[in-house]
Amino acid sequence: MKKLIHISLLLGGMIPAVSFAQNDTISFAEPEKLGETVNSKAEESLPILSADGKSLYFARTFHHGNKGGKQSGQDIWMSTKDGSDYSDAENVEVLNDKRSNVVIGISKDGKRLYQLNQFPDEKETVPGISVSEKTTDSWATPTPVAIPELDVKSTFYSAFVSPYEDFILWSLPASDSTGNDLYVSISGDRGQSWSAPFAMGNVNSEFDEISPYFDAKNDLLFYSVNNNGDPFNYDIYYSKKLDESWTNWSSPVKAGNGINSSGFEAYFFVNEDGLAYFSSNRVDSLSNIYTSELIITEIEEEVEDTVEVEDDPVLIIETAAGTATNRELGSMTKEELTAATTKIRFVYFDFDHFDISRKYIEVLDDAAEILDKYPELTLVIEGHTDAVGTDAYNKQLSVNRANSAKEFMLINGVEPSRIEVEGYGESKPYASNYTAEGRAKNRRVELRFKED
Fold first, then answer.
1. d(CA 73, CA 96)
2. Around Cβ 321, how many Cβ atoms within 10 Å?
């Protein structure tokens, strides 16, 4: 067998390198007001597009066609989108009553629709969120979603539920100011259970932050702030997510190119193709829905920098004798390698990636040495993911991660018949999916040796 190329790394060291630093420039197309099939003489707000791009849901206020009439609460309306055309909006009557009804999230598969508020009976409204399941041709009655420690101290709050049902963004009354701050709840089991809301760090200020939305494709948070405390002037800002903590963000930037006016702009939403929607009252006392385009331009420049190799354990070996992080794979006996209780964990991936980092090459090298030493053994490479994303997507991502390790070994001379690949997606977590640290540990590859 051809031996794998061995690359020695000094953990905790600094390696000088010349690389390309990529900076994204963010801009917006000139906003356009949607036509009369969507906008009316009443107020339109909270636009949200279904994942298939065909259904535009929004809230209407002060409209005679609402369930309770013009002076009742908000109703959910929907317009069908066909290319650049929008059908005449219709009241989604099955989801509305005389109270305020708004959509705050639609699952990726289109089978669940989330609403603000809970409705325990025909009259009472309770702060929180509800979910409706898709039936054959309609929506079922909304049921409450349990959020631990959710405490809404005022009548104004808002939320956005991720299409992957793995986080909820909140605008909630802050304990130390008169306005709202941004919070997030996390789910590691696709919305079956949620963490208590926690503050989102440096995007919060002494002013009022409302209408949060997160663009997962570009790691951008959009929300609105009342500038200088002016209750009639809310502008849309955006900030880049810098890590997986939900508390570390780039300095907020005010959206340009006409997105904001001297009035009220909020409830920004953008689909995967960059088509953006938001509410604005720039030409009226009541808000209408506008569209724009989010434009991301990548600029690469050659810079000299340093790459810091992390101090995290490269390899975690669990055997009947215990867990070790400083043991080399080559020191294991054949009995330990093939024992059912042995777990060999390594290769921790960046979010949504499956490329092998160079600091794990030594482990692959040692695995090849073991196969060379014991011809009767085969190697099973298992891929795993965290719980962010759909089951189908994570299943394929886990296979891609396992195949990355396999491909490296094949290129360097290991026989294909000696390696099997399995992908488990998110089904076998090693750590909690409720924390960034836990999710990072779950994005991994495990090795398992077996005797033919």
1. 10
2. 9
Least confident of 26-35, 386-395, 441-450: 386-395
Number of domains in the chain: 2
- Cut 0.90: pTM above it: no
Do 280 and 402 belong to one domain? Answer: no
36, part of any domain? yes
What's the Cα-to-Cα distance from 233 to each of 14, 176, 190, 208, 264, rounded to whole Å? 48, 22, 36, 11, 5
Domain span at residue 152?
21-302
- Please state, as a whole number, how many other Cβ atoms lie within 10 Å of the Cβ of residue 104: 23
